[in-house]
Amino acid sequence: MRLSQIPIFTLREDPSDAEIPSHKLLVRAGYIQKLASGIYVYGPLMWRVLKKVSTIVREELDREGANEMLMPILQPREIWDESGRWNRYIADGILFHLGDSKQAELCLGPTHEEVITTYVKRICNSYKQLPFNLYQIQDKFRDEIRPRFGLMRGREFIMKDAYSFDADDAGLDRSYDAMNRAYHKIFERCGLEFSAVDADAGAIGGSGSQEFMVIADKGEDAILICDRGNYAANVEKADSRITPSPDGGAAQPLRKESTPDIRTVEQLEGFFKMPAARMAKTVLYEAVFPDHVETVAVMMRGDLEINEVKLVNAVDGLAVRLADEATVKRVTGAEVGFAGPIGLKEEVRVFADLSLQGMTNLLTGCCETDFHCLDVNPGRDFPMPEFRDLRRARSGEGCPRCDGSLIEKRGIEVGHIFKLGTKYSVPMEATFLDQNGKRKPLVMGCYGIGISRTAQSAVEQNYDENGIIWPRPIAPFEVVVAVLDPKKSDQVEVGTRLYEQLRAAGVDACLDDRAMSPGVKFKDLDLLGFPLRVVVGRRASEGIVEFSERRKSEEKSEIAVDTVLARVSS
Ligand code: ATP
Ligand code: MG
C-alpha cells in the first residue's frame, strides 16, 4: 500500500473526551473516529489491525479444532425468555431491544448463548456427535451504563465468542483446557503482557471461569497476584490468607455501653481501646431482584472490607447498593452509624463473613443511637447469621495457596472463559442421547475475546510521548519505507524498489510516498507507530538508507539498501 492512497488524517490535539493514552492516540492518529457515545468507525489502518488480531484468534482456535460460523445479530425475545435472561438484561439496562412491524420483540445480541443453544439443540441428538466447539467473530451490542475509553468499553464492539458442547464434565474440562491453551497463545502472539486470573462468572453464570488481563495502570479491573506466582485472581473473586483475630475467650454476659456520637470503626477503636479485628461492623444494603428490592445486613470484621460482587452472588440477586439513610433508620430504628445485628427489623436477612465464624464476645452496634454492645455472641444474642465469604481480599495479605503475599495490579479484561455446565441446556432443553440411550443435557462452555478491546490494549501497553508503538504481529504495517522527498526521482526509485522487494519477501510493508516536509512526516510516522522504518533520503543515490525501530528508546543507523531485507527479517 502507498500511504498517499490511504486517507490518513492525524490530529494535533488530543480529543477532549479521551481519558487514557490509548484512546487519545488512536483518535489522534486517525485510527478510529467516534460516531456517537461508545460507537466508533474503524478507519482503514485500524481495520488492518483488527483483521490481524482476528487472524491470530482464528489460527489458534482452528488449531484446537474449533469451527468458525456466523450467527444473526438480531435475536427474538422468545429464546431469551426460555433461558430466563430477558428480564434480567432489561433490568440491567444493557439490552438494545426493539419491536418489529408485527409487534414481535427482538434484541441486538449482547452475547449468543441463547442462539447457539437453539442452533445446537436442533442439530445434535447423539453422544456420537460430541464434542464440538463453534465460534464466530462479530459485532456485539451492549447499552453500557458508562461507555468510555474508546474501544475499551463500547456499545457496539467486536467480539470472538466460542461455545463448546460436551457429553459430560470431564469433556468440558478438556474443551476448557483447549481454549485456555489457545488464549495463552493468542495473547502471546499479539505481543501483550497479560495474566490469566480466576474470575467471577457474573451474569453469564456457570462454575469455573478465568479472565485474561492485559496489565496496564489504567485498566478498569483490579487483580491480585501472588508474588511467588502461585495465584492470580480478579479482586471481585479473590481470596486471601489473613491474620486471625485475637481470641475472644469464653462467652461473657452481654453489655450495652453508651457511645455518644461514636460511629466509625476508628472512633470505636479509640473509645474502647479494642482492635478493629475484635469488632463486627454491620452494613446495610439494598439487594435488587427482578421483581423486588430487599434490605440485607452484612456483618464484617471491623478491619476488613466487603466485596459487593461476592454479596450479589450470596443473595443471588441482580445487584446490591448501599442502603440510603431513610432505609437504615427504618430497619434499625436508629441514626446512621449504630446498625448492628441486635434489634434489627426481622425482615432483614443477615449475612456474616466467614472471618467472624466462631468468634465470641464481639463489639457490635445494637440499633440504638449512641449505644454499642460488648460481648455479643452470635446465636445467643441474635439469630445465627448466614456465614459466607463476603470479604474483599487486599494487597499485602497472604496468598491463599502458599506463603507468598498478594500484590495488586490493574488489568484490562481482554478475554474470559467459562464453564457453563448445563445452565442453558437445561432450561432450553438442549439434550442428547447418551451411550445407554438416556436423554441428557449438553454440557457447555463459553469463551469470549474482545477483539477491538484487545487491539486498543496493545496501544495502552506500547506507546511513548511521540505516539503508538504497535507490536509487530498486529501492526497495520510491519515496515514503512518512507521516501523523504517524493519529487526526487532517485529517492522514489530506491524507495519503490525496496518496498516491492519487501512485499515480495512476504513482509507487510507500506510505502510512504506522501509529499510533506520531513519534520511533519517523521512526527506523523511516530504517531502512527509502524514498528520498523526505512527512510530513503539524500544518500539514496549512494545506496544508503536510514533504518530504525519504533521503540521506546529509538536508535537510528545508516545501512546499505541491499541489507534492508535481512535487517527486517531478523
Ligand atoms: P466487562 O466486565 O469489561 O464489562 P464482561 O465480563 O461483561 O466485560 P464478557 O461478557 O465476558 O464481558 O465478554 C467477553 C469479552 O468481550 C470481554 O472479555 C471483553 O474483552 C469484551 N467486552 C465486553 N464488553 C465490552 C465492551 N463494552 N466493549 C468492548 N469490549 C467488550
Ligand atoms: Mg467477562
From TrEMBL:
The lineage of its organism: Bacteria, Candidatus Eiseniibacteriota. This is Proline--tRNA ligase. Catalyzes the attachment of proline to tRNA(Pro) in a two-step reaction: proline is first activated by ATP to form Pro-AMP and then transferred to the acceptor end of tRNA(Pro). As ProRS can inadvertently accommodate and process non-cognate amino acids such as alanine and cysteine, to avoid such errors it has two additional distinct editing activities against alanine. One activity is designated as 'pretransfer' editing and involves the tRNA(Pro)-independent hydrolysis of activated Ala-AMP. GO terms for biological process: prolyl-tRNA aminoacylation. Its main location: cytoplasm. Gene3D superfamilies: Anticodon-binding domain, Bira Bifunctional Protein, Domain 2. Consists of three domains: the N-terminal catalytic domain, the editing domain and the C-terminal anticodon-binding domain. The keyword Aminoacyl-tRNA synthetase applies.
